[in-house]
Here is the input.
Amino acid sequence: MSMEKNVFLEKLKTGLTKTHDALAKNLDHLLFGKKSLDKELFEELEELLITADMGPQFTHDLINDVKEKINRRELGDTRQIKTVLRERMVAILREMEKPLAIPKGEPYVIMIVGVNGSGKTTTIGKLANLLHKDGHEVMLVAADTFRAAAIEQLEIWGKRAGAPVIKQKMNADPAAVVFDALGKVKSGYSGVVIVDTAGRLHTRVNLMEELKKVKRVADKEMAGAPHEILLVLDATTGQNAVTQAKMFKEEIGITGIVLTKLDGTAKGGVIIRIASEFSLPIRYVGVGESLDDLRAFDSNDFVAALFD
Ligand SMILES: Nc1nc2c(ncn2[C@@H]2O[C@H](COP(=O)(O)OP(=O)(O)O)[C@@H](O)[C@H]2O)c(=O)[nH]1
Ligand SMILES: [Mg+2]
Here is the structure.
């Protein structure tokens, strides 16, 4: 294992310590202290999983699974529940492990969406760096024109990651900035284009309309663009992240998720809920505020950090 991968894994593990404790430690406490597989145990297990943000669907399915295994006499000891839970988590997260396959030598447009503060601009900087290292050419587009600071912040990340930034003035039409960027594609640019967008406008309807327009203009300028729409979710917000996933999926139509701020959250279990309710690929995870703090999602690493 490379040094860098090691450092990242350590950050993920440390970051998920609180989630790990809320889950694995409480589970040990519950299961090792109990001898009988009864109604009371199921109720406590249900409460524990809900408290760990895993959501009603997953919790319900897990408990049904355990009950069936008991009926089939495949499970006779409370401690085996832990194995059943781990297997279910692995199965569900493995389904979501679909790394983004970005072709080289042809233009590829990624639109980044999400609520204010979820980590969009930071993720773009980190992603530009990751893609650069992978041999891609990267260009950033400042289509969050709602605040002047947002454009400056993207420029700072562009410098760090060595990627040019296409921008206009504050309050410019975001779709016009995207139009400019795709003009570069028309005149021969053949790398990755990452579009930053606003996470807050005067109303939610305005925001959604603006994002839809950006999407329309992108597709008009380059058929098939944006090729990927990534929703950035802040893991520390727990159930709010679930609400956001639902809203953006329904209104904009996202193709993948980035889960940020996994360094130091007690709500990392929300990834299970998002995976079981939305069946959207989790493309990347973020564990900090520096350039190297983003990686493709790895289900094994994640379950190990949560559980072992
Ligand atoms: N700890 C931590 N902070 C993050 C992470 N990603 C973003 N942030 C911080 O979250 C805050 C909001 O990020 P920003 O990219 O501006 O969010 P945006 O409004 O969605 O563009 C900033 O202070 C970032 O440094 C992460 O993975 N871990
Ligand atoms: Mg931003």
Residues 114, 116-122, 199, 232, 260-261, 263, 286-289, 293 surround guanosine-5'-diphosphate (ligand 1) (CB under 6 Å). The radius of gyration is 21 Å. Residues 204-221 form the longest helix (18 residues).
